[in-house]
Amino acid sequence: MSPATAPAGPDLTPAPLDRAAGHALLADLAGPGAAATLGGLDALAPGFPDWIVTSLFGGTYQRPGLALRDRQIANLAALTALGGVEPQLADHVRYSRRIGLTEAEITEVMVHLAPYVGLPKALAGLRVATATFAESTESAKAAESAAGTVTEEAGA
């Protein structure tokens, strides 16, 4: 029997291809901005966002073998190791924060990678993470400021 036709081991299951589950997971990870990003990409490469959502978020992510937290740590490590994919790494830093990883845990992933992927790539990953953390802090401050303005106006 060739490897291509050999049955999967007892612990491996085929990945589903569930478009609705993919969109739901992406919305959980990316928040409300996911649809806008995909819309822009669909205008450039029609059908490509659907493939991404269906095969990745509605397929690979749906497999039972790893928790979402573990998948995100693997994504952070892989994207840092690749290098040159800063926008995707920043997205996955955001996704990791949304599902509960702390800034310290994300930072530790990057530090842990240094002996495996090299210092320059680990430092580049740390730069992306730091910028993404700062962006998140700025957004929170802006939201607090806007809430304060609304409260002041309501009290006036």
Written description of the protein model:
The protein is mainly α and 156 residues long. The chain contains 7 helices and no strands. It has helices at residues 19-30, 34-44, 48-57, 68-82, 86-98, 103-117, 119-155.
Number of strands: 0
Report the end-to-end length measured between terminal Cα atoms: 79 Å
* Helix percent band: over 70%
Overall mean confidence score, pLDDT: 87
Give the amount of beta strand, in percent: under 5%
Instruction: Enumerate how many helices there are, as a single number.
Output: 7
Alpha-beta classification: mainly alpha
Series of secondary-structure elements, N-terminal to C-terminal: HHHHHHH
Uncertain runs are: none
Can you summarize the main beta sheet?
none
Radius of gyration: 19 Å
The best one-word shape is: globular
Q: Main attributes?
A:
156 residues, mainly alpha, 72% helix
Question: How does the SSE layout of this entry go?
Answer:
Elements: H1 19-30, H2 34-44, H3 48-57, H4 68-82, H5 86-98, H6 103-117, H7 119-155
Helix pairs in contact: 1-3, 4-5, 4-6, 4-7, 5-7, 6-7
Q: Quick summary of this structure?
A:
With 156 residues, the chain is mainly α. Helices cover 72% and strands 0% of the residues.
